[in-house]
Amino acid sequence: GFMSEKGLYVRAHEAFMEKIYPTMDGVDYTRQDMFSLVGLQNTPGHSDYKKAFNDVLYNLTHVNKEPLLAQDGKFFRKVIKGTKEIEWWVDSGKKLIDFKWPRGQDGSSFGFEHSILIYPGDGIHIAGEGNKGKTALALSLAVENIDNPAFEGVTIFTTEFNDLKFKSRIERFDWVNLWDSDKNRPKFELLPSVRHYEDEILRRPNNLVIIDWIKMDDEAWKIRAMVEKMLKPLDKGVLAFCTQKRSYKNWGEGGEGGMDLVSAGFHLMYQKLWVDKVKAPRDELSDPNHKWFGFEIYNGGSKFRDIREVQKCPTCSGAKKVRGAVCGSCNGAGWLDK
């Protein structure tokens, strides 16, 4: 009868608004997903309720003057109600960050302090081959910024270390005091790798967060969405993360997508760093985009030296040999200092 149909519709509408709608921020659902969420099964006894539920979806998507849902193929998503304007002219209290980069113990440097602008909320991506200096670079970023007043704290996520291994590694960074004697603990926090970094970043939106390194397993293609989720909760903080790079692949895991949303992206090979992308170079003269740097890491993966700009040898194009013989221009190094 009419009442029972109306009653079912009201029940279905309430179930949707209570159980499903609040969970739809940034999540798309198929009909089947929603049926499961409200406990609808494929049984004849549920078919009337299912029809009512489908009517609710139809009305919320197509009939309502202000639709709550939009449909893309099989998926339903929440319609965003009015996006807030970015009030760029109001002082938010945020300032350009005086960000510190790894430096050579011999006074050499990448020069990034002068060539790369880093803003609150920025992301830095280091794609590196296994064991080619990712951890040295990541820990250096933590150490060099340990007392940076721009950050409320420094958080390191590690995939590599247990407590003992980390202790022996971090103690080699002996040119900076990493101990907070008032609190009787280190000035940074060390956490194990987690599945959802965005949940942890949400608790530390003003920290320098360093992730060494993100395990992508078979989900490398998801990295763009993952980076977007990790950057979203940042306020005054900065995120620097490493991904594993196979030497025969041009990009870090997840391909180019991992570089899309970051402000600075690097590729690390043995004793070489390539600047893939810098969104905000300080000026055209010092623009580091697509520059190569050579360096050495010593003292158990803690110290840099001999950082300099390099280029592939123009004679052998980096191949180290010409017609089977060692290249005379670079003495078989494949590289020349610039």
Question: Could you list some keywords that capture this structure?
Answer:
338 residues, alpha/beta, 10-stranded mixed β-sheet, 16 strands, 25% helix
The helix-and-strand class reads alpha/beta
Query: What ranges have pLDDT less than 50 throughout 5 or more consecutive residues?
Result: none
Give the CA-CA distance, first to last residue: 85 Å
Query: Which geometry do the CA atoms define?
Result: elongated
Query: Main beta sheet, described?
Result: 10 strands, mixed
Number of strands: 16
Our Rg estimate from Cα atoms comes to 26 Å
Spatial strand order of the main sheet: 7-4-8-9-3-10-11-12-13-16
Strand content: 15-25%
Q: Could you spell the SSE succession in H and E letters?
A: HHHEEHEHEHEEEHEHEHEEEEEEE
The number of helical runs is 9
Mean pLDDT: 91
Helix % is 25-40%
Structure in words:
The protein has 338 residues and is α/β, with parallel strands linked by helices. It has nine helices and 16 strands. A ten-stranded mixed beta sheet has the order 7-4-8-9-3-10-11-12-13-16. Strands 1-2 form a two-stranded antiparallel ribbon. The protein is elongated, with a radius of gyration of 26 Å. The mean pLDDT is 91.
